[in-house]
Amino acid sequence: MKNDGSPAEGGESTELLTSADVSRTIARIAHQIIEKTALDSDASRPVILLGIPSGGVPLAHRLAELIQKFTTVTVPVGTLDVTLYRDDLRHKPHRALQPTTIPRGGIDGAVVVLVDDVLFSGRTIRAALDALRDIGRAEEVQLAVLVDRGHRQLPIRADYVGKNIPTSRSEDVVCLLEELDNKDSVILIRPDESAEHTNSSGTDASSSNTRASEHVRD
């Protein structure tokens, strides 16, 4: 979701990846996808990149552009909205529905690489797998993420990880992307100690940090 790119209020922020770091990291993931899927060989299988809104979509397009640059192979890119497949719809609000766009020919028999910005609890990816099941039968499903911040609640692991960032549950990892935020950056936000306590209105002040929550994936 687009935002002004400013750090979250009420917390200490540290930039973990600069714009140059993000570019190098995405390029490395592209090379890894090429190697693992044998895209540059005669033995390659059809590969499709599906970005999970919002951050995964521009990442998927960048990966496809880099793969074409490195191999001249054109990899189809689509979008997979998983909102209605989440198991926590009743417990917290979610962004508006985004369109799901599947490349012509569908996913049957293809290697589908799901692309997201941050891997956290694994629930978003579980929802993505459920969504894929209703779309077709991929030969293989892989996962590429820019950041893995740990704290998995489901047995899900990424095939391609840009950076592993150890975090506490009270911290936020914010991925800013040029296409959505006018800059590339990965920021770690530590909560203000005062925000961890219930405020006078009876609500948890840390939960009101809408700036960070727009970018926190799970």
Automatic annotation (TrEMBL):
Name of the protein: Bifunctional protein PyrR
Source lineage: Bacteria, Bacillati, Actinomycetota, Actinomycetes, Mycobacteriales
Function: Also displays a weak uracil phosphoribosyltransferase activity which is not physiologically significant. Regulates the transcription of the pyrimidine nucleotide (pyr) operon in response to exogenous pyrimidines.
Molecular functions per Gene Ontology: uracil phosphoribosyltransferase activity
Gene name linked to the record: pyrR
Residue ranges annotated as motif PRPP-binding: 112-124
Family matches, as PANTHER family: BIFUNCTIONAL PROTEIN PYRR (PTHR11608)
Catalytic activity reported: UMP + diphosphate = 5-phospho-alpha-D-ribose 1-diphosphate + uracil
Keyword Glycosyltransferase (UniProt): yes
Polar residues compositional bias, start-end: 197-211
Spans through the membrane: none
Alphabetized UniProt keyword annotations: Glycosyltransferase, Transcription, Transcription regulation, Transferase
One GO term of the biological process aspect: regulation of DNA-templated transcription
Region (Disordered): 191-218
Source organism of this protein record: Corynebacterium pyruviciproducens ATCC BAA-1742
Enzyme Commission number(s) from the entry: 2.4.2.9
Any matching Pfam family: Pribosyltran
Domain Phosphoribosyltransferase: 15-166
Similarity section: Belongs to the purine/pyrimidine phosphoribosyltransferase family. PyrR subfamily.
